[in-house]
Amino acid sequence: MAESGLIIVDKPAEWTSHDVVAKLRRFAGTRRVGHAGTLDPMATGVLVVGVEKATRLLGHLALTEKAYDATMRLGVTTNTDDAEGQVTAQASAADVTAERVRDGVAALTGEIMQIPPQVSAIKVDGQRAYKLARAGENVELAARPVTIHTFEITDIRHQGEVVDVDATVRCSSGTYIRALARDLGAGLGVGGHLTALRRTRVGPYDLSKASTIDQLAERCAVLPIGEAVAAAFPRRDISDEEARVVRHGGRLPAAGLGKGPIGMFGPDGELLALVEEQGRLAKPLAVFVS
Question: Over the stretch 143-157, which tens digit does the pLDDT of each residue have?
Answer without folding.
Answer: 999 999 999 999 999
